[in-house]
Amino acid sequence: MELLLILLAVIAIVAVIIFLILQYYPPLGGRSSAESQKRIEASPQFSGGKFRNQMPTSMVNSPKDTFDALIKTIKGTPNSRPKGDVPVEPFDSKAFMENKEDQVVWFGHSTLLLKVDGVKLLIDPVFSDYASPVRFFGPKRYSDKLPAEIEELPELDAVIISHDHYDHLDYASIRQLSGKAKQFIVPLGVAGHLTKWGVDPDRIVELDWWEKQQLHGLTLTSTPARHFSGRGGGAGSTLWSSWVIVSQHTRIFYSGDSGYGPHFKEIGEKFGPFDLTLIETGQYDEKWANIHMSPEESLQAHLDVQGKLMIPIHWGAFTLALHSWTDPIERATRAAELQNSVLATPKIGEVVTIGASEYPSESWWE
């Protein structure tokens, strides 16, 4: 009887600790306001207490699949990380600002700095060394340096978030950006995280799929993706999005994280053709095909949205899957050659001018 009481006490203590962590550990995020929750519950994407995809999207693996993945993880994947630092081009903020052309700079993985008609946008900012809620634990960045730190960036007109996973929404980065960005434009439900981290609610715009926000002459539209959300529990409590950015002269599509689906053609029909697409190309597995594309599917998504130039993203910074770190770009390059599509392969930090006659094409990962 005494042993049973001790066991129950230990279970109760553990339960309380877990509860306190989920409630109060800042990187896990926060809850939606009452006003936001009303909009969430009225969304066509919200059903049965959570957000859902346009089409059935199972994410349940069999016990065998889970066991196989665990064994592969323990064994490790050859070439899962670069042998040394990947090449990084330093960011020249002054030159970036003085150049009048539309430009994009890839900071690795899915973090992108854009200047479109002079409007400065930062997408899915993750400047931490780990794609994790805990420092020194989880996927570590390949390189010890970035093209620039947050304090070295120009003042930002807006930060755009695709969804609330740790490799796209980073607590430390948002804390630093709260005084540098004029606006935060996010999918429904994500504002709860930002307000908990000190961002003024008046500077946050939440959008459902197909809703638009005007910003200094640009039109930003939240568009569908085939994915999921959740950090610290509450899976599906926030929406995930791709994004369309349109100016008078330039059209850009950012895929966010997504499995392949008919939404790409729908977006292309509504908003295409696009001068530039930024498409998720890495961190895939056949068991995750519903929520992450293979490189060949990524290229097809680019074609579906009627893209002219594609930059592969969601690779080159963290190992989050069991393929080699160069597999995404190698396969995407081959697929582009077969489809006679134009692919840009910039180094991290290398400036790409949208609409230029030539683009970075060096195989720097070799």
From TrEMBL:
Any one GO molecular function term: zinc ion binding
Gene3D superfamilies: Ribonuclease Z/Hydroxyacylglutathione hydrolase-like (3.60.15.10)
Domain Metallo-beta-lactamase: 121-315
Keywords: Hydrolase
Keyword Cytoplasm: no
Catalytic activity: 3',5'-cyclic UMP + H2O = UMP + H(+); 3',5'-cyclic CMP + H2O = CMP + H(+)
Entry keyword Hydrolase: yes
GO CC terms in record: cytoplasm
Origin superkingdom: Bacteria
Coiled-coil ranges (or none): none
Entry function: Counteracts the endogenous Pycsar antiviral defense system. Phosphodiesterase that enables metal-dependent hydrolysis of host cyclic nucleotide Pycsar defense signals such as cCMP and cUMP.
Stated name of the protein: MBL fold metallo-hydrolase
